[in-house]
Amino acid sequence: MRRRRTSRPLIVVVGHLVRDEIISVSGKMTFALGGIAYNLATLQAIMRKGTILPVCRVGEDIRNMIRESFGSCSVLDVSGFQFTHSPNVVNRLVYRHDGARDEWNSRRSSPLSLKNIPIEADAVMFNFISGNDVKLRDLKAFRQRYRGLIYFDFHSLALGHDSAGRRCYRYHPRWRDYVSVADIVQMNRLELASIMRAEQRSKVDVYDACRGLHETGPGIAIITDGKNGIIISTRSPARGYHVPATAVRRVIDTTGCGDSLGAAFVWKYLITNDVLKSIEFASRIASSKATFSGIDGFGRINEIAKRLGSPRKAIRL
After folding, report:
1. How many domains would you assign to the chain?
2. Are 224 and 243 in contact (CB under 8 A)?
3. How confident is the model at residue 89 (pLDDT cuts 50, 70, 90)?
4. Residue 203: which CATH number?
5. What does pTM read for this prediction?
6. pLDDT above 70 for 163
7. What percent of the chain has pLDDT over 90?
């Protein structure tokens, strides 16, 4: 796995953009950019040097939203946006009282091409927003020619569709093929349970399950669990840690917290090569995202993070 540190990273973000319709527990609906928009907004907020290259399509219905949100970003290479006349997918997220959510997509997106990704990129982040963002054969072919860091958010690969079109957890029969491509894999606890076909009842159970992920390929596994924090595991040396969630006085919207976590971790890891410093930093950024809805608040996310206090320290399992 990549070891060289860099102060000016080139980070490629691959995945679909969507238009989110977020319905809170109280029934309030919020419209926002979704999908990899949270990865991009996080990197835009924390990066002062380097380049962010998105690989995604932008439909006519969100073209102006993209320009308003990212058009003035000095570190973002807008050449990666593929503008089309077709509308983007609408993703409806309905939050429940238990903190979970139901999710519907207006339609399914077609896969993205990886042909124009520069092989000199320091990291490529694959975020499976639709579950059909990249063809497996293209992903494997890219791994063969690319020697940089590959981060992988399993996300919607763990989701199928029920008879009503709602996204629901399912076992992905080829999860090992996908995960084997990655150096770093991230998923939440329910996604982990879907591929392990069993619930992990304790932090140690989660860490034990991560060993199965390491056997498949990734050197680092990140498992998020909302207010219970994060489990991070490394293959070499074989260690597991729990990072308690940063306390937030008032949670507004948790949509995008996992995406913010992944982006912040990859950036910090590229410049420090330190797993624990990176996950502690990323955890606080993710908690900061929970204090606002959509992506407009990212302009002040560093200020929010400072107000939350010092990052919570990782605890060895």
Report:
1. 1
2. no
3. confident
4. 3.40.1190.20
5. 0.94
6. yes
7. 74
Question: Does residue 2 sit within a domain?
Answer: no
Burial of 151 (0-12, 13-18, 19+ CB in 10 A): buried
- Across residues 300-309, what is the average pLDDT? 96
The encoded tokens of residue 130 equal: 């639709």
- Confirm whether 4 is domain-assigned: no
Residue 3 lies in a domain: no
Domain hosting residue 69, numbered range = 10-316
CA-based end-to-end distance of the chain: 23
Tokens describing residue 190: 């329910």
Q: Say whether pLDDT at 233 is over 70.
A: yes
Please write the tens of the pLDDT for every residue from 141-155: 999 999 999 999 999
